[in-house]
Amino acid sequence: SARPDRARVSLRLGSRKEAAVAARSSVSRRLQYIAHSARLRGVPEENMTVTEDFSRVENTYQMEAEVCITFSDFGKMQNVCNLLTEKLGTSVTINPPHFYHTPEAIDTLRRQVCVTAVGNTRRKAQEVCRLFGQALGKPLLIKEEETKEWGGHIDNHLSHPADSQTLQERIQNATAYASCRVFAVFEIKGKENRRTKVL
């Protein structure tokens, strides 16, 4: 299994004022504070995305913004979110984090599962050989027969777990699992003769 290696947090903020400059300024100050706070805690600039929407609603100007921050350190994520909740209060809406795997993390899991399956096969073959007083020789054939994957989320903006879940439940639900079945043929070395047998 592999726990998610990334978390994306979306923060929303807005302002509606009679003057356009006032609406923009109100949102701009909070955006700067969010970016500054995240940078101070080691979040790279490229891990932050800001989108802004400016519109006219009746006789007022409305400025809305969304900040998406991607974290690889979940402790750092909690620190940033807690700070922004404390300092900005209800003037910013912090959505629950979306946990997911990068493609590299899934590739690593697939490789580890296959290597582990081959290692398990070899150990079982050694145990059988010891039972009969034989020695396990070199592998003659190793074939990956079946790989299964389940659970987990790949980087997907559309996946949003239920809001009622705890942080640990979200991480658990985003954990990826994989299994691999291998077929292996080993040489078996006997005391007097050598023969090949499928284990």
TrEMBL record:
InterPro entries: IRAK1BP1 (IPR030312), SIMPL/DUF541 (IPR007497). The keyword Membrane does not apply. One of its GO terms (cellular component) is nucleus. Its main location: cytoplasm. Keywords: Cytoplasm, Nucleus. It is found in: Cytoplasm; Nucleus. Pfam families: SIMPL (PF04402). Gene3D superfamilies: Protein of unknown function (DUF541), domain 1, Protein of unknown function (DUF541), domain 2. One of its GO terms (biological process) is positive regulation of canonical NF-kappaB signal transduction. It comes from the Eukaryota. PANTHER family: INTERLEUKIN-1 RECEPTOR-ASSOCIATED KINASE 1-BINDING PROTEIN 1 (PTHR18842:SF2). Belongs to the IRAK1BP1 family. This is IKBP1 protein. It comes from Notiomystis cincta. The gene is Irak1bp1.
